[in-house]
Fold this protein.
Amino acid sequence: MILPIIRGIERTVFMLLGLCALLIMGASPATAKSTHINASLVLETATPAAGQSFQAAISMQPSEGWHGYWINGGDAGFGMEVEWNLPDGVHIGALQYPVPEALILFGMMNHVYEHPYALLADVQIANNVPPGTDLTISGIANWLACTDKICVPERAIISAVMKAGDGNISAENRARFDDWRAALPRPLDLQGRWERKGDALRFAIPLPDSAALDAPHLFLASPGIADYAAPQRFSRNGQQIIVEWKAKGDGTGAIDALLKTSAGRGLSLRFEPGAVPPAGEAIKTAATSSNKWIFWTALAGAVLGGLILNLMPCVFPILSLKALSLARVGGDARDARIEALAYTAGAVATALLLGAALLALRAGGEQVGWAFQLQHPVSVLLLLLLASAITLNLAGLFSLPSFGGGDALTRKSGAAGGFWTGALAAFVATPCSGPLLGAALGATLALPLWAALPVFGGLGFGLALPFLAIGFLPALRRRLPRPGLWMDRFRKIMAIPMGLTALALIWLLWRQTGQAPIMAYALAALALFILLLWQWGAAQARSTSSASQPRKAILAVLALACIGLTALAGIKMAQAERPVSGNANPYSEAALAEARDSGDAVFLYFTADWCLSCKANEAAAIHRAAVSEAMSAAAVRVMVADWTNGDPVITRKLADHGRNSVPLYLWYAPGATQPEILPQILTPSLLIQRAKAAEQAKGRP
């Protein structure tokens, strides 16, 4: 009994303090300023007459990128809750919600409003209220404000001054409330029926065939009945709309619902338990069509982006593996097709696994993006050991059936070699983001799981497409040089770029950790790893039979790798001070807001040390002397968002612009509300032109 009393006193004190502040500021109606959604209480009339009925509205103004929720928020969210403090003679009814939108994020369905909206409530004044009576109303409002990444519960006092009077409603207020009322669903007088058959929910909505349906979606006010993210199948059987949906949980009795018929239009109705007729002619939904359009566009972008990725600098170190695979199969059509298919399978499988891991981490609340595997030193060490082993293999210090050539196992191990070569290609190449790829991967943030995974697979397919074409087109294959002694020399030459890749990974590991003890351990493990491979190669040179290869050496190599990875994983990665190149400043939301408020142009670029295309752009354009001089002359604020070690804030900022990978280049012109997204391949002239335009916009000579 004591706890409810204390809570009641707390609410009363909080409300009184808020009302005092409102009276001091002279606010009428009062507006509650929140961080992400502003709520204000608006009355249709401030001078209601005794016995009069009118409406009050809670006007909700979401900030850019934020949204509020319907009465049933779906998988993640809740609607408005208000604890009213009403004077005698005033009664307020239940809140009435406008027609929401269905929003899928990371496989979860949300029922939201991404634009300004208003919740209406009927207000009734008692018949015995004398004129001039103070009828000021107030309440404590609680709601949830979300973006596609985070949710923040918000709370504020809403209040409006009201006195009993003549009941006049101004023309402006009437028009304003008419617009809000038009956004409410229309009541459907006829009841629907619903039933559950196994794992399926079935609804029958009495609706004549003359009623148009554009983008239908059924919203259930009762929670815990349906799997909201599952697809809804609409069909027409005579004068009824049949909706079939996947069940989730148990439900009994009547169900209140809202049928969205088109954008901003809908019908409210109630379903009673009963038999539902069989499905009829299928009805297309706009949500399904929209998802399909996004899916096919993203899939095409991923395939083309993966194809272009073959030309990016980050892919060059593994081109040697492709060349050796192509040369090894020679003119044999069957072997070429097997090698090409195996290579494609390896690239697609790796892209799918990375994509699935990314989606799983995001669904678990982690703020990660594409190439997350290179944001952790354990993955970098693993890739370093692998790159070192391939370098030694190409140099001829030891041989593996998957990479070697000329022995009896070549034909048998061609598929395995092609698969692992494709897997390695995808693992190393996908951190880069070329043209079309950033937008395509960013689209997976808004797609359901069934549509997002094929987009990642399309990236791997595009990466393998040239190799696949050569394997299946004899005309292309005939242009390749024939196998011969040159292969051995070529293989040794191609050990150079792979060795440079290993050196780059050592540099990356140092940049990530910034700790000498970690680097000393990693380099010692690498040295022992190389020594064991060298000993294995020496044993191979003394032996003519692959069966007599030293198994102890293999076990020692694997044990050393496991010990090294386990030890490094147990060391907490230090977030060392990240050096910033040139005249750039580290990115933060506060620093970006301060820079934009200054009136100067802002150039914000997102980069990572493991992204070779990022570094190529920085060397070729961003850090050029002419560009730096132009930026300084125009007083451009240059900011860098370093994503090398991963950063949830940077990940959210990337997602805000439809990206989950780097590079990304944003140009904020002076006074602009939204940034311009620059191409992913920068040129000095592009940046110099932007700087000169900013200088002219500020009136500098």
Remarks:
- The first strand starts at residue 31 and ends at 32.
- DSSP finds 19 helices and 25 strands in the chain.
